[in-house]
Structure formats: C-alpha cells, structure tokens
Amino acid sequence: MRAGQEVVVNLEESGRSVEAPAALERTRLLFLDEHLVAVDKPAFVAAQPTLTTDRGVLPELVGDLLRSKVTPVHRLDRQTSGVTLLARSPRAMAALTEAFRERTVEKTYLALCAAAPRPAEGRLEAPLGPDPTRPGRRRVCASGEEAVTRYQTLRTGPSGTSLVLCSPETGRTHQIRAHLAYLGAPLLGDVRYGGPRSVLGVDVPRVMLHARRLCIDHPFTKAPLVFEAPVPDDFLLLLRALVPAGSAPEAP
C-alpha cells in the first residue's frame, strides 16, 4: 500500500448476496399439499445453503412461492435438475426422511454419458468414500459406504455418447456420477469425474444429469405418489445432437 491508494471491501452479511434471486416459476411445482411439495429443481440452483451463499437456494425460492417454510428431504447436486421433495412440517420431514432411510423410495435419473458403461446394463454394488487425492470427489473403495446403482444404456450415438437410465438404491454423495465414471462412462460436463465439456464441437453447459421420476407413498395417507419432471431443454438439445435416435426420451 502507498499513500493515496484506496481499498474498497464489500462485506455480505451471513454470505447473503445484495442482488435478489430470481423467483421460481409456479409451473415447477409438481405436487403440493399441506405436508409436502415436489418441485422440478432447475439446474444451477443449490438444494441448500452453501459456505458462500444462502440466497437463491431451493428452500428459499419454494418458501417465497408458497409463503411458508419448507425443508429439503433429499438433495440434488447444484447442476443436477429434476424432482426434489421438500417437507412443510417437522412431522412430515421425519416421516419422509424415514422413507428414504428405509429405501422405500424409487428414484430414476437420466444421464448423458461420454461413453456407454461397461457392461451396458447391470446392478453395480461398489462402496464409495472420499478420494484423498481429489478433495470433493468420491471414489470406489473397499472402506467406503455401501452404494448400489441399477443402470441401463438406452441408446448410443455415433460419437459414443450414451443415454443411460439410472436407479440408485442408496443415496450417497455423487453416487451416480462416481459409479458411471467407474464404469468408464463419465457424465458429459462432469469435469470432476473426467467428463468432457464439449463433444464434436458441441458445448456441454453443465453436468448432464436429470432426476426424471420419484415414487413414494404419502407419509400420512399412504397413497402412492409418482412425480415426474420434464426433461429440460439443455438436456434435450444435447440428446438430439449427439444421440440422434429420436426426440425426447420416453418416460422410464
């Protein structure tokens, strides 16, 4: 520092951004009652507050839309789109959390991969733990937590890009991403796990993973609930460009 120089520091209280986040469209509500809400989470919206911000996260956006507090029952990665459940009361939160713990929830994801997994379909039981060489990354290791993913390659394009259907039986951090990379099929845009940011000159805008469907019994009425999130435009554009065997994938 020298005399006459000026230093300007902007402090954001509790990590809050000065700029107000964009509102969530009401069309993204897939289901709503007094106990729970199912939402089609947009990509690039965090499922919960992070170390750097608590603005524009999904609970805030949904809470603003409903004018009531909501709590995420499970979490999708920031760049992952699709079905997300939030509870509207502590009682509902406890019941829904128990359903996930007991593995009575069925989840289905669509993934665009750099290659077809090897083998093309199956049930992978491969425990996952932290990768000591890459902070924030998970890897298959004998000492890790149980992780099980069922998967099926739906079709493969000329470049090798593949559309893969995934049904995780457990809910570990980065489970689908780490398991597909382990099978030689990293997700497009998933640089952390070896996925490319472009294919045949086509840019990949994000990690290409979409939570397509979630099935669960209502925590109190016990009625079966099925929530489906439409396949987003960025996913469809890449699918049509790189796996040109049809338009939108059929609902799994």
Task: Tell me what you see in this structure.
By secondary structure, the chain is an alpha+beta fold. The protein has one domain: Pseudouridine synthase, CATH 3.30.2350. It has helices at 58-66, 90-101, 175-182, 233-242; strands at 29-32, 36-41, 71-72, 81-87, 106-113, 121-125, 128-130, 138-140, 148-156, 162-168, 198-199, 202-203, 209-217, 224-228. The strands form three sheets. Strands 1, 2, 3, 4, 5, 6, 9, 10, 13 and 14 form a ten-stranded mixed β-sheet that branches. A two-stranded antiparallel ribbon has the order 7-8. The chain is globular.
User: What is the top-level CATH class?
Assistant: Alpha Beta
The unreliable regions are: 4-18, 247-252
User: How many distinct folded domains?
Assistant: 1
Largest sheet: 10 strands, mixed
Number of helices: 4
State Rg.
Answer: 20 Å
Topology:
Layout lengths: L28 E4 L3 E6 L16 H9 L4 E2 L8 E7 L2 H12 L4 E8 L7 E5 L2 E3 L7 E3 L7 E9 L5 E7 L6 H8 L15 E2 L2 E2 L5 E9 L6 E5 L4 H10 L10
Parallel strand pairs: 4-13
Antiparallel strand pairs: 1-2, 2-4, 3-4, 5-10, 5-13, 6-9, 7-8, 9-10, 11-12, 13-14
Task: Throw out a few tags for this protein.
10-stranded mixed beta sheet; two-stranded antiparallel sheet; 252 residues; 14 strands; Pseudouridine synthase; single chain; alpha+beta
